């Protein structure tokens, strides 16, 4: 019997995304990071939306009250999820191309 477990993705963060995570309140940061970690198993889970950008970015609602967003790229060939922005829903889309 073979193990048909799907390969999981590696999670990587852009330096700006790490800085944005560090600015969050510690309790909120834990919840947001926990939600981001779920992207390793299924980066196109229910609730994930593709953004209308030339960089093929996706977004997901995170954290308490789902008031935070992560904007990320999915690199299927390398099995990598690259988180490029993290923040409050009111601020995160600024300067996303």
Uncertain segments are none
- How would you sum up the major sheet? 5 strands, mixed
In terms of quaternary structure, what is this? single chain
Alpha carbon gap, first and last residue: 47 Å
What structural class should be given to the helix and strand makeup? Answer: alpha+beta
Shape: globular
Spatial order of the strands in the main sheet?
1-5-4-3-2
Strand portion, in percent? 25-35%
Number of β-strand runs: 5
Q: Any idea what the radius of gyration is?
A: 14 Å
**Proportion of residues in helical segments:** 10-25%
Number of helices: 2
Roughly what is the average pLDDT, rounded to an integer?
Answer: 88
The SSE order reads EHHEEEE
Description of the structure:
With 97 residues, this protein is an alpha+beta fold. Helix content is 22%, strand content 30%. The protein has two helices and five strands, in the order E-H-H-E-E-E-E. It has helices at residues 15-23, 26-37; strands at residues 10-13, 49-50, 57-62, 68-75, 80-88. A five-stranded mixed beta sheet has the order 1-5-4-3-2. The protein is globular, with a radius of gyration of 14 Å. The mean pLDDT is 88.
